[in-house]
Amino acid sequence: LAFALAELIDNSLSATSRNTGIRSIQIKLLFDESQGKAAVAVIDNGRGMTSKQLNNWAVYRLSKFTRHGDFESDHSGYVRPLPVPRSLNSDISYFGVGGKQAVFFVGQSARMISKPADSQDVHELVLSKEDF
């Protein structure tokens, strides 16, 4: 569970890495049964994803490091940090958890809402573990 949560936080750290202002990352544990089942929410003020990028995220075994061709990616300037074993200073994805596996380790479904920084559009992806 710790590595799954760390992976989700690492994704937010990556998304906010180019912010010129404040980097905001919130982790919320939601236990209000009147709103449905318990949930984990990771909220950041990163650059956001387009609908195509959200859909690409949902493709099994499609890493942000191996996307080519039709897959839209914005990791051209990404430099993998030197590994620091079991540390948030390292690239957590390096350990093989991955965002897709992380969300389904924590729960049975994922709901991602994103607004690209240069757009007025808000995109949503809902995916169940069963569908994935």
From TrEMBL:
InterPro entries: HATPase_C_sf (IPR036890), SMCHD1 (IPR038892). Coiled coil: none annotated. Pfam families: HATPase_c_3 (PF13589). One of its GO terms (biological process) is double-strand break repair. It comes from the Eukaryota. This is Structural maintenance of chromosomes flexible hinge domain-containing protein 1. The lineage of its organism: Eukaryota, Metazoa, Chordata, Craniata, Vertebrata.
